[in-house]
Predict the 3D structure of the following.
Amino acid sequence: MCDKSHRYKSCPRRGPNSASAELKKEGEDKSSLGFGGSFAPAEALKLRGGWRLKDEFGGITFGLGLEFKGFSFDYAFLSYGDLGATHKAGMSWAFGAKVEKPKEAEVPKPVEIPVVRPVETPIINSAPELAWTGEENYVSVGLSAGMGNTATPFVYRVKYTDADNDATAGGYPKVHITKGGSGVSGSPFAMEYVSGDNNTGAIYAHMQRLAPGNDYAYYFEAKDSSGMAAAGMPAIPVNGPVVVQAEVVSIPGGTNVAVADFIGKNVSQADASIVADFLRTELVNTGLFNVMDRNNMDTVLAEQKFQASGCTEQQCAVEMGKLLNVKQMLVGSLSKLLDSYYITVNMVDVETGKITASYGSDAVSSRELKDACKKIVEKLFRK
């Protein structure tokens, strides 16, 4: 129900159509009930009606309102019971600038600051490289000798380099040894670390004795820890070595024999000379050879101004043997690869100048070098 003039626009609005009820208590004994509603058949027309249930001044009420471009008209009918009815009408006209209700300030939403993540630079893995070690006998190859016999310990060496300092994958580098185009038994062979580091060059090696043949070839393979394959000249097959059968030739009893100082490979010259002394001692212990004492050898060679050190070639051995007046010269070398030692001995006939036999023996420690020399001597004669 509307108060005062009962004009529609003075009533609270909850929408174009509405209904309401009102209960009033006046004093201790009097109370009244009223209800009504409004209906808008068009935007400019509003109809209102209601009923007041009251002992005095009760009755029906109704009204209407018109609004159009600032002009408005309101009419209301109110019944006051026995006192009759009241008619109310009013007009208004609004002009001038339209006053708009100020809008409520909007609460700004918090600005989300985007999280700037650092740009991840992709990691580029550099391929590892294989190269020749550049050591003596390994300047442009990866094999210690291009020729030998079945007793020769062929040593394969290669250098692995990785700019990222990545280690080799497990079991690498490997050396592939082929014969007639097919891998020999056990090939490829895992190589063992010798020295150096990955980013400047680490050297790996492998020793292998081979059966007779002239159709051998070898090449190297390596991968880094991420599986990237290495490239380089050593990855291309290289022919060699040529291997002949080692002849086992016995020296007749009473033969004059001399042993030249061994050449040291990856060992000191002093160690190589000591092993040559081991071989002399074992020859003497057999009681079958006339072994020239080292001191006598040095004296004779010094008188003849002959340089004996480094004598491993056949011609050198022949010249030395003639000066010492012996029939057989034994020349050789002591090599070390990782923790193993390898002894190679060639027997040279002084009269013919030919290598009549070649012997080899291994030792896993320096304590076994004497036994290795003893095994070589046992091949020199028949008991």
